[in-house]
Write a structure and sequence with these properties.
This protein is α/β, with parallel strands linked by helices. The chain has three domains: about 150 residues, 3-Layer(aba) Sandwich (Rossmann fold), CATH 3.40.50.720; about 140 residues, no CATH class; about 70 residues, RNA polymerase sigma factor, region 2, helix turn helix motif (Rna Polymerase Sigma Factor, Chain: A, Orthogonal Bundle), CATH 1.10.1740.10. The chain has 16 helices and eleven strands. The strands form two sheets. It has a seven-stranded parallel sheet, sandwiched between helices. α6 links the parallel β6 and β7. It is globular and about 55 Å long. Bound molecules: nicotinamide-adenine-dinucleotide and magnesium ion. Magnesium ion binds next to α7.
């Protein structure tokens, strides 16, 4: 493994913090080159200081001032780059070998794409990039000669289960594969009476039973829209058709996902629910690196449970499957409408149970776009913007009940 110079896009987030933790354990093999953050400039300054980052990217001039004010001194100030274009430019910087794409939402798409086009080792946490632009992204990886390693725990698990299998032809699934079994915890509302879901609060939705994550993905886990995004992500990453991707609820989150082959063999990847395992796998591949994650004590745990997902309780999962069957445009709309809906729910402007309503409304309204060709990033971003404005209008006018 060559020495890696890492750019962490979204360093101040949950994945960003875990990534810096793993990098700091291996100073002989890797170092931080660049960090980016959108808010929390004090945190970014602290991270840049302790990791000796050479470059930071901040969103605007005001953030730059806050970063400077928070700089602890005593070490050379990193170069401060400003704005969205600087994110993509830094991801493609010739001095960077490895890019952790951990910005949340479709905002992370252009920089992840720039890393792929520039042929980096791309550690992809930002699943929204594949949901909104799977075709464009996978083509960029191929043409740019990038090495794509999934960071989402389910996809890292599947990747690990497939390691050593007969390589697929470019653009085809691994030979002999029957099904992907994507596991889901079922989130905090797996067994709450349906009648109570109308009144759940953002705090309750963000209290995930097993994983500690950012607020947006925590709500997505509660609605299981996250699992829907992951099904779409798996479709693109592993070239598997939607009919061969199943979701199974596994409340303990110990099995991170499974792969079933045509001979009946099922491979599973297990571990503690800690993202540092997937991050260390991506950073170290093909070698294994220590990640700080402790022992898995199955005997103490005693049992692992499984159940099928209930699509009445989790309409967002149904909508995601439908979008994947329908069209690329529907996937863009699903993702953008969800981002607005979750933001409004976190701001207490709509109820939890209205999240699928917002998505369904936008999918219905923009249904005519199914045939639209989305092979250019601009077309994706246009549809993304149009969906957001439709979703915002709907949230403004929908009665909160
Ligand atoms: P988070 O909200 O904790 O952090 C998001 C990061 O993105 C922050 O650094 C923030 O400053 C930055 N950011 C936000 N808006 C931005 C914008 N408009 N432009 C530039 N930067 C912006 O999110 P997270 O939980 O770390 O998730 C990051 C990504 O990883 C998401 O795509 C998520 O789906 C995925 N993921 C997260 C987990 C997890 O355990 N947290 C697991 C699997 C996948
Ligand atoms: Mg996941």
């Amino acid at each position: 493994m060559n020495f890696q110079h890492v750019c962490v896009l979204g360093a101040t987030g949950s994945i960003g913090v875990s990534t810096l933790d793993v990098i700091a354990r291996h100073p002989d093999r890797m170092a931080v080159h660049a960090l980016t953050g959108h808010t929390r400039m004090e945190q970014l300054a602290g991270q840049a200081h302790s990791s000796r980052a050479k470059v930071v990217v901040v969103p605007d001039a005001a953030a730059r001032e806050r970063f400077l004010a928070a700089w602890p001194g005593g070490a050379p100030l990193p170069e401060i780059r400003v704005g969205a274009q600087a994110l993509a430019d830094t991801a493609a910087d010739p001095q960077v070998t490895t890019v952790m794409a951990a910005i949340i939402g479709a905002a992370g798409l252009p920089s992840a794409l720039a890393a792929a086009r520039a042929g980096k080792r791309v550690l992809l946490a930002n699943k929204e990039a594949l949901v909104a632009a799977g075709g464009i992204f996978m083509k960029a990886v191929q043409q740019g000669g990038a090495q794509l390693l999934p960071i989402d725990s389910e996809h890292s698990a599947i990747y690990q289960c497939l390691a050593g299998e007969a390589p697929a032809q470019a653009g085809q699934a691994v030979a002999g594969l029957r099904r992907l079994l994507v596991t889901a915890s079922g989130g905090p509302f797996r067994s709450r009476p349906l009648a109570e879901l109308d009144a759940v609060t953002p705090e309750q939705a963000c209290a995930h039973p097993n994983w500690s994550m950012g607020r947006k993905i925590s709500v997505d886990s509660a609605t299981m829209l996250n699992k829907g995004l992951e099904v779409i992500e798996a479709h693109w990453l592993f070239c598997v058709p939607v009919e061969q991707i199943d979701v199974v609820i596994h409340p303990q989150s110990v099995i991170h996902s499974m792969v079933e082959f045509i001979d009946g063999s099922v491979m599973a990847q297990l571990g503690q629910p800690d993202m540092r395992t997937a991050i260390a796998y991506g950073l170290g591949f093909p070698e294994r690196l220590a990640s700080g994650v402790g022992l898995l004590d199955l005997a103490t745990m005693g049992r692992l449970d499984f159940e099928p997902p209930d699509l009445v309780r989790f309409p967002c999962l149904r909508l995601a499957y439908e979008a994947l069957r329908n069209s690329q445009a529907a996937c863009v709309t699903l993702n953008a409408a969800n981002e607005i809906a979750v933001d409004r729910f976190l701001g207490e402007q709509i109820r939890y149970t209205q999240i699928p309503d917002v998505i369904e409304h936008c999918l219905d309204k923009l249904n005519g776009r199914a045939a639209q060709s989305l092979d250019a990033l601009d077309a994706v971003l246009d549809l993304d913007r149009e969906t957001r404005s439709l979703a915002l209008d709907y949230c403004r006018t929908a009665p909160r009940g």
